Amino acid sequence: MDGRAFFALAGVLAFLGCRAVVVELRRAVKGPVAEVGYIDPGGGHVRYALRGAAFFVSQRRKDALKLAGRHCGGPKGGSKDGAVKIVKEWAQEDNETPYNAEDLEASLRYNLDHYRVEPYQHLLFECVRPP
Q1: E strand map for the chain
Q2: Pairing of strands 43-49, 83-96
């Protein structure tokens, strides 16, 4: 394997480790008349894994904030004002259960637990809408 292929493969693997997950999204709800504005500006819940090197954790956080901004109408999501307000943030250990047959079969064959407990950072956010 030459140097360029190695660095390309390393870049792809680094990118795969830098993903956040959307847990829940709330759509914005406008009032019955224009003077009311928004009843609920929208928001949601995203999480990202805390395992691994600090670089990967920071990339996952950036990805989580990018997902939140995109939901609120930020870049590639519509308007340019996709401002996000973090309402609550906490670390929590979540159970990760594989749902595909290959992963489940392999863990049960060797009498391993069929789930993993991993630390995640959770972010609850609200969209900031212009009045």
Answers
A1: 21-26, 29-30, 38-40, 43-49, 83-96, 116-128
A2: unpaired
What gap in Å lies between CA 125 and CA 69, rounded to an integer? 10
User: What tokens appear for 130 in the block?
Assistant: 């212009």
Cβ within 8 Å of residue 113, ≥6 positions away:
107
| pLDDT tens per residue across span 1-53 | 566 655 454 554 455 566 888 899 998 888 888 888 888 889 999 999 999 89
Q: Is 71 exposed, middle or buried (0-12, 13-18, 19+ CB in 10 A)?
A: buried
Domain ranges of the chain: 3-128
Residue 96 to residue 85: CA distance in whole angstroms: 28
**What are the C-alpha distances in Å from 19 to residues 7, 8, 82?**
20, 18, 20
Phi, psi of 5 (to 5 degrees): -65, -40
